[in-house]
Amino acid sequence: MSDAIQPEKKTLTVADWWTAFIAVNSTATRWPGALRAALAILIPGSIAMLTGDKEAILLICAGAFTVIYGEGIVYRKRWKVMAVAGALLWLGASVGALVGTLVFAPGNGHWWLLLTALFVTVLGAGVVFIQNALRQPPPGGFFIVMVTGGSTMLARSGIDPLEAAFWPLTAIATALVLGMLPALIDPHGPERATVATLERTAKVFEESKDDELARHHQAQTALATAWEALADAGIVRAGRVVITSQSDLVERTLNAQRSIVKHNRSGVDASSEALFESANLLDPERTVMPHSRPTARYRIYRSLTADSHAMVTAKKVAVAGLATGVIGVALGLNRPDWGVISALLILQNGPEKIPGTIRGTHRVLGSILGLGLFALFYFFGVEGWTLLAALAICQLFAEIMVVKNYALCVIFSTPLALLMGGISEPLGDLVVSRIAEIALSVAFAFLVLWFMSNGSKAREYMRLQLRSYQSMSTVLGSLLTGKPDDALVQRRDLQYELLSERRAIQTLALDHPEQAQQHWEKHRAIQHAGYQILDYCSLSPNVMMEYGALGTLIESVRKVAPAQSGKQ
Question: Whole-model pTM above 0.85?
Fold first, then answer.
């Protein structure tokens, strides 16, 4: 049963805000992946330089981001993720360049930039919906939208769209090779590294005497990542070990999980995760092996409602992005893609008001420092080989920071975005224009964050209450005619609904504590009934359920039945 937060006791202090602001969200080692990210630019970039095509260096960056999407993922799944990411980056760069040729066609004036604003906004909203429905970790679709938006500006520099489509392919191919090359040396390296990170993080959390808020979040993030890696590697399935030769990794993960839960029960406020933007769908009070996530189709389908987290986030990105782009163009600014992407960066994971405000502040500070770094490149006149080196360095540090702290990541992603879009104005005008667009994006992002769809969280929580009840009923129906192992899919989906319900009341408690308090007892009953079913199934996976035990479970579920269970 989840009893992690008590909304009536939750008071946010200045220390909480500051902890979330400076938090390092992950302690995982990123240097190997960062080096691969830099090489994904350096190798094809060197080829471009040696063939005399200096302009291609900026195009290569678009495909080099492919390697970032594969980092930390087990090898049997990594190549698929990288192939999909690479295809989306290439498609974005190609289509963006074509849109740019229309925007900057001879005779078209400044107002044609509205097409760029609309295009990037629609793309951003769609990408944000998908990434939130799938609960993707950072960087999500940010780099895909950034590459696409930057590519719309390439026509202004006279770059041919065909060239813009070719050179990213070389970087994508390089990234795929670099990403999969370590598999030849250590086929199970990512799984072991993930578990080692979990053990290290759990030990730090257990021994921490201060900053427990951030340490708890790091531990939960590492735990969720470890179980996901073991499931992706096929080592565990349905709460059991499948590949016995790797059972030591499972036992180490369980031991770390037990130590985290034990420390949670000693008085750590487990609601700390609600203060952070990156959500971990893992119950901090459970000590058993979790089921894997439902299919992508299931998660997307369950998000196709007006008040779902993914849908509301997409709507906020659309409103803030379009407003930023249109007002920016009306004021004479010339990078609407930059403004839209800035708004997306703040809102892309659908943060609550406090995490979103922190993210906006990260965006402002990181962008100002990033503009300073870009100004240094501009001042020293980097071009050719020095430009290639500068881009590789920025890529390296952006990869290190992308899952740790967004303010630090933005410092290095800002020069990448600016350079990819081309430089067509003096440095002073460029800096002033980009700061103005950042100011607009932050203002509109904060407006939609604090004042748009305020009632959606309560409505979404009620929907997830119903979903949890329906999912429990489905599992019980399956147990009437079969063994628990015959209902693996239904059990997996029930766990997902229980975790979603728990996360929903956490977010409701953070933004609207008085409303969460009204539903608190019902939430506890739902969690108790749901995990009672799952625990029984785990204990007797291949035994038909006796009517007495089944009657006990049915009675628990009846107690949480909604007043009108026919609504969807």
Answer: yes
